[in-house]
Amino acid sequence: MEKVITIKEWLVNVVQLNKINVVGLGPGNIKYLSTAGIDCIKQAEIIIGSTRQLSDLKTIISEKQEIYILGKLNELITYLKENVERKITIIVSGDTGYYSLVPYLSKNLSKNILNIIPNISSYQYLFSKLGENWQNFRLASVHGREFDYIKNINDEDIEGLVLLTDDIQNPYEITKKLYNNGIRNLTVIVGENLSYDNEKITILEIEDYKKLNRKFDMNVLILKKGENYGKK
Predict the structure, then answer these.
(1) pTM of the complete model
(2) Which residues, other chains included, contact 19 with Cβ-Cβ below 8 Å and sequence gap of 6+?
(3) Are 183 and 171 in contact (CB under 8 A)?
(4) What would the pLDDT profile of 143-189 be if each residue is shown by its tens digit?
(5) Residues 6+ apart with CB under 8 A from 194
(6) In sequence order, what are the residues at sequence separation of 6 or more whose Cβ sits closer than 8 angstroms to the Cβ of residue 111?
């Protein structure tokens, strides 16, 4: 009797010696890309990423390599299955393990066929610029998703929050809501265009949140509790 295998089993068999590489770009600037990541990009037949990511990598991408610009994710999966026998490298921003494309790829393909090359995230980069550690901060995202930062900031076990934001839930809207809910003794740190030449880091106290009423470039937000946080 002929054995029927699933699509995931087929994919694993096909790419046992030719896995799909997923490379973390890091905070953005190519100088933070790992040597392992560079090797995966140079050896690939197909490179997949956003327009900005591919533009950042133009110095190490050759004209002979095929480029696929990320769009609809279901179309990406179809494309990957059609080209699974070729050498493919997918570029993701920041670290591969922090709000990246990896869970979607694992779910719709198989994590066994992914060769993941990690990198530092934007928040790790920002903390390094501040000369501080981040292990006692809670990491979360409000980029197209909900997160109760008012409730979480009051958790006594953490020193603060690190948030990935978007155009709607941006640093101004977040800090305004916190202030209007009685939050004080909080330092607000916004890192924009991190690692690029136009990098900008803004540091102010929650009482000055109105200064953040402007348009933001891609950014990460740190909400750091002061020594007297929660005390009146």
Answers:
(1) 0.87
(2) 113, 114, 115
(3) no
(4) 989 999 999 999 999 999 999 999 999 999 999 999 999 999 999 99
(5) 27, 28, 122, 125, 126, 129, 219, 220
(6) 102, 105
